[in-house]
Amino acid sequence: MHKPALKPAPNPAVGSVPPYPDYIAPCLATDIGRPPTGNKWAHEIKLDGFRTQLHLRHGAVTIYSREGHDWTERYRSVANQAARLSPGHLVIDGEMVVLRSDGTSDFWALQKAPRPGISDRVTYFAFDLLYQNGEDLRGRPFLERKELLRRALDTS
């Protein structure tokens, strides 16, 4: 497993790239028994899939499992699509899911995803932007990161 770390920042005067994080350990949900109330909370749909982290570095994509294992080849179809995003450095937190025709997730099909005919059915639900072009965004408000993620994924 990779430990979360930032690589030392190169001297920008020499024209090198900003630091890029290695795998970042995910923030996991905590069961509190009931949903919180009030307008300071964002609620998201729970998907039945695999938590993954997508790293994009100038078109090169690496997909990490929740434990930090390289799953890029397992989800090659998603990696190929992600490589088409705008150039730059991104770390996106999300969930790999196979959807049924009714829109619900099919965990059993996801477990078989590396097999031909199934891997192309995998959908990546991106729900948080952790890092973008030299900036660790984890200290920013969640809804601000959501908006930055929306812009990063807008390829039109």
Can you put this structure into words, describing what you see?
The protein has a domain at 46-153: D-amino Acid Aminotransferase, Chain A, domain 1, CATH 3.30.470.30. Mean pLDDT is 82; it is low at 1-15. It has helices at residues 76-82, 107-111, 142-153, and strands spanning 50-57, 60-65, 89-98, 122-132, 135-136. The longest helix is centred in the C-terminal third of the chain and has 12 residues, at 142-153. Strands 2-1-3-4-5 form a 5-stranded antiparallel sheet. It is built from 3 helices and 5 strands.
Give the helix/strand layout.
Elements: E1 50-57, E2 60-65, H1 76-82, E3 89-98, H2 107-111, E4 122-132, E5 135-136, H3 142-153
Antiparallel strand pairs: 1-2, 1-3, 3-4, 4-5
Annotation, overall tally of beta strands? 5
Q: State the name of the first-level CATH class of the domain at 46-153.
A: Alpha Beta
Helix content: 10-25%
Number of helices: 3
Please write the string of helix (H) and strand (E) elements.
EEHEHEEH
Mean pLDDT: 82
Shape: globular
| End-to-end C-alpha gap | 36 Å
**Sheet with the most strands: spatial strand order:** 2-1-3-4-5
Main pleated-sheet profile: 5 strands, antiparallel
**In the CATH classification, which architecture of the domain at 46-153 applies?**
2-Layer Sandwich
Portion in beta strands: 15-25%
Judged by helices, strands and strand pairing, the structural class is: alpha+beta
- Within the CATH hierarchy, at the fold level, what is the topology of the domain at 46-153? D-amino Acid Aminotransferase, Chain A, domain 1
CATH H level, superfamily name of the domain at 46-153: DNA ligase/mRNA capping enzyme
CA radius of gyration is 17 Å
Uncertain regions: pLDDT < 50 for 5+ in a row? 1-15
